[in-house]
Description:
Blueprint: H1 2-24, E1 45-50, H2 58-66, E2 74-80, E3 96-99, H3 108-116, E4 124-127, E5 132-133, H4 138-146, E6 151-154, E7 157-162, H5 166-189, E8 200-203, H6 204-209, H7 222-232, E9 236-238, E10 243-248, H8 253-270, H9 272-277, H10 283-321, H11 331-344, E11 350-353, E12 356-360, E13 366-368
Parallel strand pairs: 1-2, 1-4, 2-3, 6-9, 7-10
Antiparallel strand pairs: 4-8, 5-10, 11-12, 12-13
Amino acid sequence: MILAILFGLLALAGIGYTLAAAALVGRWRPPVLLPSQEHDTLPSITLLKPLHGAEPRLTENLAGFLDQKYPAPLQMLCGVASPDDPAMASVPPEAELVVDGRRHGANGKIGNLINMIASARHPLLILSDSDIAVERDYCARIAAAMAEPRVGAVTCLYAGRGDAGGWSRLAAAGISWGFLPSVMVGLATGMAKPCMGSTIALSRDTLEAIGGFARFADTLADDHAIGAVVRALGLRVAVPPMLVTHGCGETSLSALVAHELRWNATVRGLDPAGYAGSLVIHPLPLALLAWALGGGAIGAILTAASLLARLLLALRIDALAKRRTAPLWWLPARDILSFGLFLAAFGVRRIDWRGARLHMEREGRISAGSEF
């Protein structure tokens, strides 16, 4: 009964968190973007796209970064480590391709960026992961955010989109219905200081001031580390009110589990206390545990209230993202899976990252396993 009461109180806190997240969703509807700068004052932009392997909708995603309502020059650099990389077939003809297999540390993506950066021509750099899709006003909104006082970098929140069938839609639901609201609440309370691979925009001068990409060659969460170093300069990492799309490509449960375990273990390694405290974002499994451990009618009420609160949040997130992430009846199973992976990440010490086995070390650093 003591455990039932404990889980019940945690579920009640989780319901409060979920309702607060649902209320905050409206803050992220982007305002109408008005032209506030003349053509000749807009910064020219180099888009950096490190690629590795074929992905669903990769051709479409890359093309979207060039199909922008942006009057200043845009350069897209796509980098691969091997001339046999199938991602090369998706590179738009207007983009420039850098093929360079030199390694610079355990983090392959950062090594790719180090090899690409010498070809960048423009003062504003925008790095984004290969599985990101954007709207046509993306570059204009990033440039507007970069122009704000004391902004050293810009990052973007993202919603999930399943691009490879049912398992990918289940993965997308974990992003949209779980991760995205937690960042919204963290930003509103000042507890989150995100800098994410969905977008990292910064000037060439700022990149040089933080030591270039080489500084992060052995860092697992390179996006988080870049944000931390930018803030250490006394600059802000802005998060404009807009969403980009993360395309999920998982084709099996094992792929989904491996990906999310890596992500959870990364967050746990960066902030163990904060990760443990995120237990509260799982109200439905907590309420089910309270009910199963003897919570009786109160446990049943908490379970129903948790489910209703989670459905409300999922509906509001999907309305913001302008698509149904996954069937709503999947939500209970998705929440139970998320809770199981949350717990499992406490025991993870090695991760698989795009076919490479990496060992997690202190302060978010990584070393390559024998497979490298």
